[in-house]
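Final report, Chapter 2: Outcomes

The project's central promise was a pipeline that accepts a single protein chain and returns its three-dimensional structure in a standardized token representation, suitable for archiving and comparison. That pipeline is now operational. To close this chapter, we reproduce one record exactly as it appears in the project archive, with the input sequence first and the structure output second.
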Amino acid sequence: MLHERLDPALLLVWAQAARHKNLHAAAQALFMTQPAVSQRLRQLQDVVGEPLYQRNPQGITPTSTGMALLRISEQIESALRSARVLCQDRKDLLRGSLSILASHSNAETLLPQVIAQFRQHYPGVFLRLVATNSRAAREMRDQADLVFVEDRPALSTGSGWKEEMLVESTIILLAPETPHWLQLVPKPVPLQSLEAEVLVWREEDSGIHEQALQAL
């Protein structure tokens, strides 16, 4: 029965001594002197209250209590190795924050899977996504690190921003299969013929909305 507070460092010394079964070899593994190892093992035996080993011509032979304590000591060594790996991983972990502005279409279709993969690789980065229309995203770009819009933002020289095309898409006009519309296809459709039609559009300031207007 342990009647004093047990120093885990003593158990680490004992682990080396019990595995090597030689105090000199244990001292070399621990970068200590043999007298220092012997002193710590005496301290450990005083705490345990019984011998942990018997001496022999080749070194030492652990007792049954010593072997039981060796298994506990190895658990401590394993826990320390895990702690060191964790600390190293945290040290190497990329940290910071990333602010993204995106049009609704990009925020709903292009970005979710990409963001999920990013979070898996960089859990230490706080990511903030704001969904808005393309015009608002362009106007608010100084508040973000990345901006995703449908149309080309026509950046001014020296703006500090770089433009890159990620995905090319096609905007398609859908029309009902009625005799009226079938007569117009595949002929070019005059804009005047659309004046009386009900059109379903994206919201004002939407990049897709603006691109469709430019195409028409």
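Archive annotation: The helical segments are 8-20, 23-30, 34-48, 64-92, 104-121, 134-139, 179-184, 207-215.
This record, like all others produced under the grant, will remain available to the consortium after the project formally closes.
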